[in-house]
Amino acid sequence: MIQDYKQINLYGKKVFEKAVVSPPFRFFYSMPDEACFFYLLKGSNAVYAPTEKQLVDRKEGVVMQCGSYFCDVLASDDSEFCEAVAVHLPLEVLRMIYDKEFPDFLLKVNEVQPLQLEKYESSELLKSYIDNLQFYFDNPSIVTEEILKLKLKELILILAKTDNAETVKQILAGLFTRVEVEFKAVIEANLYNNFSVEELSKLTHLSLSSFKREFQKHYGTSPAKYIKEQKLKKAAKLLKVTDLRVSSIAFDCGFSDLAHFSRSFQKFHGLSPSDFRLNVKDKSLD
Questions:
Q1: pLDDT at 228 over 90
Q2: Domain 183-285 CATH superfamily
Q3: Fewest CB atoms less than 10 Å from the CB: which of 67, 73, 222, 277?
Q4: Is 201 left (phi over 0), alpha (psi -120 to 50) or beta?
């Protein structure tokens, strides 16, 4: 649940956000023509790109290239809420604030790699930047167009000076050269994440009906059937080769409800998860 939310726009585009959210909660970001810097002040998050996943904790940030993302707000020992700041870098806004004179480092990237996420810990420079942003969130009456333009340029320069500078440059340069992600790569990367078919379609930038047609073409069956079967096959393997608790296996295979997992497992494998494990152990003793 969203407890508090603040937003600052520039040229009619959202550029700065601050949110306080109680877990569990899932955000979806569709960013076809912008990069985004996401920084966590409190709590813990899982950020899902089409083929990547990053766990982001307090005082960590992540740069996201243009594309589609899910962000799960997770329970955390150090805070009841998750508090985060996001800085959006829309291509249209960057063109206006730089007046077509982009920084040299964005134009000198020879080949844009299919990078989606880059995570790193906070530095003193970045911490000072975030603290300054919070002042503007708390005092919106003093915010001007010139201040917002300077704050966006400042962030880009800070990111370009980090230990992750080369990767950050690749991600920002991706604003100008779109990198396509293969359909099957998105599916295989998210088979065991707790996503609905509709959510997977968003990660592939397809409508639900187009996603189902594309899935049928690649896998010869429906997405719901294929994904569920793959999860249950993985669960059986984990029951055979590990001593993990059944609840942990269910979670690792993308099931959020243990009872639903147990029913699905028994229907597919003919035994409950516990009986399946016992049966495997009995056979190994014969």
A1: yes
A2: Homeodomain-like (1.10.10.60)
A3: 222
A4: alpha
